[in-house]
């Protein structure tokens, strides 16, 4: 198996799914884009269902690693939450794409049950991470006006994913920035408050 071709296919399929949706491309489209035969794609991924499974597995692993990197680099809850917002914003590519979970959720009827379940697992992982971040925020005071960490996590993930859809519809990251402005201010104001009198 040619790993380079396999990785190229995964990268292309992910970019395309995130911009057009998983139903928005075929193996013929992928073959034409990178100059190979459709049979070569079937060699690596016998069916499109197989491709979707590999995409969400890879995305799950990548996002888990990114969250761990944020924890290692950022000591305060406010910094971690700001970094998460930045991760979601960078995934927009100027409003041309959405995160893979959002892209897959839109076309869930076309996906195998295992993939739908894996999307749920990814979202659960992010929810748990955000909840833990808000729990840290209660301890370190770096996020203002925290109510219930679990409820905060649900609201924040829904906001980030909804902001992705708004930005993609507009083909502009401005709606994302507007949607997350209050959340970013909660991190900044708490940080400023903590710095006062130190």
TrEMBL record:
Keywords: DNA-binding, Transcription, Transcription regulation. It comes from the Bacteria. Gene3D superfamilies: Tetracycline Repressor, domain 2 (1.10.357.10). The keyword Methyltransferase does not apply. Residues 26-45 bind DNA. One of its GO terms (molecular function) is DNA binding. The keyword Transcription applies. Residues 3-63 form the HTH tetR-type domain. This is Transcriptional regulator, TetR family. It comes from Marinobacter segnicrescens.
């Amino acid at each position: 198996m040619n790993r380079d071709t396999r990785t190229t296919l995964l990268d292309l399929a992910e970019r395309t799914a995130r911009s057009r949706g998983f139903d928005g491309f075929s193996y013929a489209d992928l073959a034409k884009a990178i100059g190979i035969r459709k049979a070569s794609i079937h060699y690596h991924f016998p069916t499109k269902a197989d491709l979707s499974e590999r995409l969400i597995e890879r995305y799950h692993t990548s996002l888990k690693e990114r969250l761990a990197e944020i924890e290692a680099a950022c000591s305060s809850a406010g910094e971690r939450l700001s970094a998460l917002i930045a991760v979601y914003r960078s995934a927009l590519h100027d409003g041309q794409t959405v995160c893979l979970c959002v892209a897959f959720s839109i076309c869930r009827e076309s996906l195998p049950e295992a993939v739908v379940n894996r999307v749920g697992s990814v979202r659960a992982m992010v929810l748990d991470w955000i909840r833990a971040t808000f729990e840290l925020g209660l301890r370190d005071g770096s996020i203002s006006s925290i109510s219930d960490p679990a409820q905060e996590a649900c609201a924040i993930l829904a906001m980030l994913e909804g902001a992705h859809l708004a930005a993609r519809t507009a083909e502009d990251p401005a709606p994302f920035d507007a949607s997350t402005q209050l959340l970013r201010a909660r991190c900044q104001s708490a940080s400023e408050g903590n710095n006062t009198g130190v």
